[in-house]
Amino acid sequence: MNVKELPLTSYKSDGQQVFRVSSADLHKNLKVVTDLLTEGHFIEITKHKRKIGLIVPY
What we know:
Shape: globular
Number of domains: 1
CATH topology: YefM-like fold
Distance between the termini: 24 Å
Order of helices and strands: EEHHEE
CATH class: Alpha Beta
Number of helices: 2
Helix content: 25-40%
Strand content: 35-45%
Number of strands: 4
Largest sheet: 4 strands, mixed
């Protein structure tokens, strides 16, 4: 699976691209999400449409 097939929404925050992914989709597609982190994108995690976390690249 690639990023285009993953049900992601995205927005810009302070010029930084942030992708929003549900906890279930994160669990199913961890490889794609880690690839996004490697590219420098922030990942916002939601559960039942509520924000529960933010993963930032190192």
